[in-house]
Design goal:
The structure holds two protein chains of two kinds. By secondary structure, chain A is mostly helical. Chain A contains 21 helices and two strands. In chain A, helix 7 runs antiparallel to helix 8. The two termini of chain A are about 30 Å apart. Among the domains of chain B are: about 290 residues, no CATH class; about 70 residues. Chain B is about 70% helix and about 5% strand. Chain B is built from 27 helices and four strands. In chain B, the strands form two sheets. Chain B has a two-stranded antiparallel sheet with strand order 1-4. Chain B has a two-stranded antiparallel ribbon with strand order 2-3. In chain B, a hairpin with a 4-residue loop joins strand 2 and strand 3. Classes of the chains: A mainly alpha, B mainly alpha.
């Protein structure tokens, strides 16, 4: 658990290489004090902070894209704290790309005013560093630190609209829940680390698989408590209650951040944990898979049902987020590398469509001051640009071809279907039923979700409202962002392969490990 | 960059870029009237790229991606345990697509230039150029694709653009209806094409949609599936029937003249409607293996040719005359395609493609001249309202005359040479053992049609440009250089492209004969090139006869035409009313469909109420769970703790 001389030696020996793999995070880390200093030293009128932040994120993205990694497996860095592999990298790239779009959106919708722009960017970037660490954490301590690093700025972001009561309420609720979840998680970590004497997940997995079939009850409870913390970040039922309240209170831009970025990173973390655990081959993991599937199914259904009859767009989108989280969790019900391509695809598609939907909400709010669904009545007449892009995002969230949402959903469904097929004749035939059931539930859910997604489209195009309302204008930059997102949604829906191939590349980082795991198992048998 | 394979990608990519730029120009108010600039530039550059590619074809085909052995660029792929459905993005320029490319991009560029003048000041100016550019992109993709699926993407793309452009003046109910009709009628054929492609894919082993791959298995397939294979060919042909406006699906094309005239010239005469001809030429290796299918193709082609020519005899709308003549000429091309097999395929297919090529030039110039007349006559196109325009519109007159003479098949002009090749194919096919008599009959039909063609073309010419000067009110005849230059360029093409390319040098047929699909279809047979003097003299005489009759009836101020119409009432009105085909379709197809639709509506009302009942369920469930979100932190925390306890409890107690 604690560093010994050998660890320290290893740490110093590989430091240069480790730092070079860590450059994107380092750039972001440097940007935070730089932004704060800029505000202290110069008048913010003379130095616009957004371009600086954008440039930094862009540079980080370039470095992330140029990271040189082995095709199989990954590179263990910082004495075993982080694992930089292609899977983590693809999620990190998605997070940075998201930030690259979210910062200009924040500037355009004027959420940060001149005074607190530095705070806004700092919080966004800080949270992103935490999220990026979540994707590459390999040590339980790192997991906890990363989750906290991502959470604390999120709390502040939720309450960013100072002086608005709902905003403060949202922040407070978020903090209370977050603290409870962190406590749960930390308790779980201490149980696990106490049992195995280390926080290194690969080592823990090795120890568990060495014990073959059994794992002590306290350790397993600890694992579950860790998952509890992650489920909170994922807003899975029954840890989801914070989500609608926080989304309603916080600004739409923040809602987009919480719904897209933090879900992506949490899923990446969950995938890693599940993968380590699944590789051990102990019988408990089957029970965990069933549990995970049940939670995914309930979350999806709950989110879709509750989204019906909402009158506030952000609240509706919050429930839609819960439903999508459930769908993405479905991919991970199967513990193997094949889950990675659909997951990566879903994350990228979800990034485009959900950020787009929240962006439209933000633009409408800026001009009308309202986030109620009625505001969207007759939007097609008031602003064709907004209405059309919102339609694309809604249809994509619903999963209609040829949009990104369809491609992503299709791949998730295909993944489940294949697994249902594979387990049919295996030892655990019950899994076949489980997956088939989950698939059917997902299909029903898709039909359910049509109710409220298409409802928005209907409002925009068919319900004109009683009196004629003034047309809404969208700033030029806003048009650019919306076209980029709409283009992304359409491109991902029409041209699957580039991203699927990235996903397959990312999956290789797991394939290699499973071979290693097999060797370990074989050596035990001999 | 100057790698031919990269240029190949540029051919469809440039017009696509042009379309996007047009849209961008359209969204900025100041740039709106400059929206033609990107369209013209990209079309011209695409043409230059196409010419460079074609000059590089020579011995080997040009491919994109360049390396055939490497992994193809995958468009999408779905793999299951038993089959792999994959579509690759591959472009390939061989001699056949090369010739199509020249026609599309060269004529397309000049038509875009012409549109600058023609569309000047119309609402939605950028929309027009965006759609035309998109059309060029789709059409080039259609001919460059190296597999059925990618070709189908281009095929549907041109269908979409045709819909957008026919319905360009969407405020006009007739234009909107025409656009809908065009879209729906061609869709009937498209379904067949898609089914046919998938049948071929399945018979070829469910591996690839690639042309070459499927063609290589053609002989195998026809042995293994003696009935399914011809069925697949017929399905593919049905796609061509829809797109190329053949009987019985030709009814959309005359209505499509509601679109702006440059569109009629580009899409509904020179390029898109020839896609069906291209498709059958491309698949010659498949079609030659089924003689019965080939006979069907030839019969449908010849029947369409004479039917449309008969209707064209009496139409009063100048553009409609041209539209029916397009249908008729396309029928000629299908007749030639249908002769491949009995005749050496490369000869018959060359005849069809050669006619396609020359037709593109002279039909484009005819439509553009008609557009110029229409522009000058204040959007009036009824020939009864104007006459004697040759002095007022000298350039238009000259261009129309060139086009009309070429279409009529006046000796030495381009239409003459290509039509002659078709007639010769039909005549030669008559010597074959199977269906020999049929082909002789078709030859007779074709030569009759040729005479009718000459007659109705010159009837339109004399009525518009000769006789006493007459103009509708509000007309202010004028010509502008931006419209004249394309007219003259294309008119020269209409006159000369035939004699330069084929009759004495046989350059065209030698070039096209090297296309892989034709080499395969020939199966070792060699096409003989000779000048069939009796046939040439005969067809020349027939053309002159038609023109002479038209001259006698319409050039002066004689009453002979009216008298003839009075004496032959039944045939006259049958032709004027388009043989009542639209009415027959209405009774036989449209009305029953409306009845079915009414029944479906009734069913739907029932289902709708049922669905509403089902839809109540989620709402009801939602109302059940919504109160749980009561905003009380204590309750949330409690439920979270309970949830966690339940999860741990489940695993500890139950799942152990």
């Amino acid at each position: 658990m604690f560093p010994i001389a050998a660890t320290l030696e290893r740490l110093t020996a590989d430091l240069t290489r480790d730092l070079s793999l860590f450059i994107p995070e380092l750039i972001l880390c440097g940007t935070i004090p730089f932004l704060l200093l800029l505000r202290l030293l110069f008048s913010t009128k003379t130095i616009p902070l957004a371009p600086v932040a954008l440039a930094a994120v862009g540079t980080a993205l370039v470095f992330a894209l140029r990271t040189d990694l082995p095709t199989h497996g990954g590179t263990v860095t910082f004495g075993g704290m982080l694992l930089i592999d292609r899977f983590g990298l693809s999620v990190r790239v998605a997070l940075l790309a998201y930030l690259l779009l979210a910062i200009p959106l924040g500037v355009l919708t004027k959420i940060p005013d001149r005074e607190d722009a530095a705070d806004f960017f700092t919080l966004m970037i800080g949270a992103t560093i935490g999220l990026m660490l979540m994707t590459s954490a390999r040590h339980l301590l790192m997991v906890f630190i990363a989750v906290e690093m991502a959470s604390v700025p999120s709390y502040a972001l939720a309450g960013f609209l100072k002086g608005r009561r709902p905003s403060s309420e949202a922040a407070l609720k978020y903090v209370v829940f977050g603290a409870a979840a962190s406590g749960t998680m930390l308790y779980g970590i201490s149980l696990v680390a106490g049992t195995f004497g280390t926080g290194d997940m690969e080592e823990i997995a090795g120890q568990i698989s060495y014990s073959r079939t059994q794992i002590s009850l306290s350790a397993f409870a600890g694992v579950l408590l860790i998952f509890g913390g992650i489920l909170f970040k994922l807003s899975a039922v029954p840890f989801h209650f914070w989500c609608p309240d926080v989304f309603t209170g916080a600004a739409a831009e923040v809602g987009a951040f919480l719904s897209v970025a933090s879900k992506a990173a949490s899923l990446a973390l969950a995938a890693r944990l599940i993968y380590y655990l699944g590789g051990t081959g102990v019988s408990h993991t089957n029970a965990l898979a069933v549990l995970w599937a049940i939670i995914a199914g309930v979350t999806m259904t709950w989110g879709n049902l509750a989204a019906f009859g909402q009158t506030n767009v952000k609240r509706m989108l919050a429930y839609s987020t819960i439903a999508h989280a459930g769908l993405m969790m479905m991919t991970l019900t199967v513990f193997d590398y094949r889950a990675v391509p659909p997951l990566v695809y879903y994350i990228a598609s979800y990034l485009c469509m959900n950020l787009g939907a929240f962006a439209v909400v933000a633009f409408v709010r800026n001009q009308t001051g309202s986030e109620e669904l009625d505001t969207f009545d007759g939007l097609a007449k008031r602003s064709p640009v907004l209405a059309l892009s919102m339609t694309v995002f809604m249809l994509s969230l619903l999963g209609l071809p040829p949009l990104a949402g369809f491609a992503a959903k299709f791949q998730v469904f295909a993944h489940l279907f294949e697994n249902a097929h594979r387990y049919q004749h295996g030892e655990i035939g019950v899994f076949s039923w489980l997956y088939t059931g989950l698939l059917a539930l997902a299909a029903i859910n898709t039909a359910l979700s049509a109710g409220y997604y298409l409802g928005v489209v209907r409002r925009m195009f068919l319900d004109t409202g009683e009196e004629a309302k003034a047309p809404l204008s969208v700033p030029f930059g806003g048009r650019v962002i919306l076209s980029v997102l709409v283009g992304g949604v359409i491109a991902l829906g029409g041209w699957w392969n580039p991203l699927t191939e990235q996903g397959i590349m990312a999956a290789k980082s797991f394939q290699h490990k499973s071979a290693k795991q097999k060797r370990l198992e074989m050596s035990q048998e001999q | 960059m100057f790698e031919p394979s990269n240029l190949l990608l540029a051919v469809p990519a440039l017009p696509l870029l042009g379309a996007l730029l047009c849209v961008a120009f359209g969204s900025v108010k100041e740039l709106r009237k400059w929206a033609h600039v990107p369209a013209v530039l990209c079309a011209a550059l695409s043409c230059a790229a196409a010419l460079t590619v074609v000059s590089n074809i020579g011995e080997a085909d040009v491919h994109f991606p360049q390396d055939r052995t490497g992994e193809p660029i995958s468009w999408f792929s779905v793999a299951t345990a038993t089959t792999k459905l994959s579509a690759d993005f591959g472009l390939e320029a061989d001699q056949l697509s090369g010739i199509m490319l020249i026609g599309i991009t060269f004529i397309g560029t000049w038509i875009v230039v012409f549109s600058i003048g023609y569309m000047h000041g119309s609402p939605g100016y950028p929309r027009f150029f965006a759609a035309v550019s998109l059309f060029l992109a789709s059409m080039t993709l259609l001919v460059l694709a190296d597999n059925f699926l990618l070709m189908f993407a281009g095929w549907e793309g041109v269908g979409l653009c045709s819909y957008l452009l026919v319905g360009y003046w969407h405020d006009k109910p007739s234009a909107a209806a025409a656009a809908r009709k065009a879209f729906l009628v061609t869709r009937l054929g498209d379904v067949g094409l898609l089914l046919g492609s998938f049948l071929l894919w399945q018979m070829a082993g469910r591996n690839s949609f690639n042309y070459q791959f499927i063609f290589e298995k053609a002989a195998e397939m026809v042995n293994a599936h003696p009935y399914l294979f011809p069925a697949a060919c017929l399905l593919v042909f049905s796609g061509a029937v829809g797109k190329s406006a053949q009987f019985p699906l030709y009814v959309w094309l005359p209505d499509a003249m509601e679109g702006p005239t440059p569109v009629s010239a580009l899409i509904h005469a020179a390029t898109m409607v020839t896609a069906g001809v291209y498709l059958l030429a491309r698949c010659a290796a498949l079609f030659t293996l089924c003689p019965a299918v080939q006979a069907t193709v030839a019969v449908i082609g010849a029947f369409t040719a004479i039917l449309a020519a008969y209707i064209a005899l009496t139409q009063n709308d100048l553009k409609r005359v041209l539209a029916y003549s397009t249908v008729s000429q396309l029928g000629f091309m299908f007749l030639a395609l249908g002769c491949a097999g009995p005749v050496v395929p490369s000869f018959a297919v060359t005849a069809a493609v050669f006619h396609l090529f020359t037709h593109a030039f002279f039909k484009a110039v005819l439509f553009l001249s008609a557009g110029s007349v229409m522009h000058a006559m204040h959007d009036e196109i009824d020939m009864r309202l104007f006459s004697g325009l040759r002095k007022k519109l000298p350039v238009t007159h000259l261009a129309f005359l060139c086009g009309a003479a070429a279409l009529a098949g006046l000796p030495l002009l381009s239409g003459f040479w290509s039509k002659d090749m078709i007639l010769e194919s039909a005549l030669e096919a008559g010597e074959s053992k199977r269906f020999g008599t049929l082909y002789y009959l078709l030859f007779g039909v074709a030569i009759t049609t040729a005479a009718m063609t000459a007659f109705y073309t010159f009837r339109a010419y004399f009525r518009t440009f000769w006789g006493p000067l007459k103009m509708p009110e509000g007309a202010h005849p004028h010509e502008t250089w931006v419209m004249n230059i394309p007219l003259l360029v294309l008119a020269i093409g209409a006159l000369a492209v035939g004699i330069v390319a084929e009759p004495f040098t046989h350059w065209f047929s030698h070039f096209l004969g090297h296309a892989k699909t034709l080499v395969q279809a020939d199966a070792g047979r060699v096409a003989e090139h000779h000048l069939n003097w009796p046939l040439m003299i005969g067809s020349g005489a027939v053309a002159l006869l038609g023109i002479g009759v038209a001259w006698a009836m319409y050039a002066g101020n004689s009453q002979s035409a009216d008298n003839l119409a009075k004496n032959l009432k039944t045939p006259y009105y049958a032709s004027l009313n388009k043989l009542y085909v639209d009415e027959i379709y209405n009774v036989l197809i449209v009305q029953p469909f409306l009845m079915i639709a009414g029944f479906c509506k009734l069913c739907e009302a029932i289902v709708y109420d049922l669905v509403r009942l089902v839809a109540m369920v989620p709402r009801f469930l939602a109302d059940l769970i919504r109160p749980l979100q009561n905003g009380l932190v204590q309750f949330y925390a409690l439920s979270m703790a309970m949830g966690l306890a339940a999860i741990v409890g489940y695993l500890v107690l139950v799942a152990k």
